[in-house]
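ok, trying the design again with the full structure, not the truncated one.
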């Protein structure tokens, strides 16, 4: 019982129905879908700005989707009190002349489940990031691409650089922003659950996934990233360990910068910050695309 509850909390797909739409921001857009190397259909919005610079946005996991995060359905005490609407940064980027691909990772929003029908926290979702880059590359062959990768999106993107025939071979990618990269094992530890619940959840998740969720480590793939990378982290984030974020940053071998922002004591504060103050983060794309 405890094991199923914990595992569902951490890896169950379909916990985040789509709640926002580009029409709410009067954005020119196109509904799109594309397939991954293992045949998963992903769906999203292509916000149509300029044709020479395109941002691929990969959202965080489990309770999120291309549109962001909503407290609806998360009980009387959600970790954040208001909608986090990723279309705000998409509007900012479009106003700066960028097109933006906002898509649902497998098992999220309107995208299909993968062959492993659970959220893997990055290893499986890496295939989605590659497919997203290839989709916009086909649509805009001469465009420079920037990667806006948020939490699990950062992990998936980093794993995608470590894969054979992965992102390191896509020469049109010119910059990356990694927002609050987080290892699964660090997150579980930060939640402070009793050990028996953690072990019970790990047993169920291992049976579901076919591997121990605590073993994959995207930090090992960070040296394979080939583009200038900005790491963004709220110093008051209670759900991570700052040495882990520092180890990710230290492992990067490219032009890099770490921006530590002091926000309220919530991991979600940084996600809100992306849309509330996009100019404080997105200038990295202006510099490198």
């Amino acid at each position: 019982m405890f094991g199923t509850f914990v595992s569902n909390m951490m890896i169950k797909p379909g916990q985040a129905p789509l709640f926002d739409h580009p029409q709410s921001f009067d954005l020119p857009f196109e509904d799109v879908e594309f397939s991954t190397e293992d045949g998963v259909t992903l769906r999203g919005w292509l916000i149509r700005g300029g044709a020479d610079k395109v941002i691929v946005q990969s959202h965080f996991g489990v309770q999120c989707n291309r549109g962001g995060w909503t407290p609806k359905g998360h009980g009387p005490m959600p970790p954040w009190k208001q909608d986090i609407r990723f279309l705000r940064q998409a509007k900012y980027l479009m106003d700066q002349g960028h097109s933006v691909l906002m898509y649902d990772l497998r098992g999220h929003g309107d995208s299909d489940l993968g062959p492993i029908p659970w959220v893997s926290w990055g290893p499986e979702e890496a295939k989605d990031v590659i497919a997203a880059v290839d989709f916009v590359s086909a649509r805009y062959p001469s465009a420079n691409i920037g990667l806006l990768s948020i939490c699990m999106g950062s992990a998936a993107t980093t794993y995608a650089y470590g894969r054979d025939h992965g992102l390191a071979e896509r020469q049109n990618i010119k910059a990356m922003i990694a927002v609050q990269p987080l290892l699964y094992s660090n997150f579980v530890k930060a939640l402070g659950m009793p050990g028996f619940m953690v072990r019970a959840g790990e047993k169920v998740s291992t049976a579901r996934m076919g591997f121990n969720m605590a073993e994959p480590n995207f930090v090992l793939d960070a040296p394979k990233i080939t583009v200038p990378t900005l790491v963004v982290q709220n110093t008051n984030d209670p759900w991570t360990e700052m040495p882990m974020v520092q180890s990710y940053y230290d492992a990067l071998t490219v032009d890099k910068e770490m921006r530590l922002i002091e926000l309220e004591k919530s991991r979600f504060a940084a996600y809100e910050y992306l849309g509330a103050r996009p100019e404080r983060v997105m200038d990295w794309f202006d510099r490198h695309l």
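Keeping the full-length input from now on. Strands lie at 29-35, 41-47, 53-58, 68-69, 84-85, 99-103, 144-150, 173-179, 229-234, 256-261.
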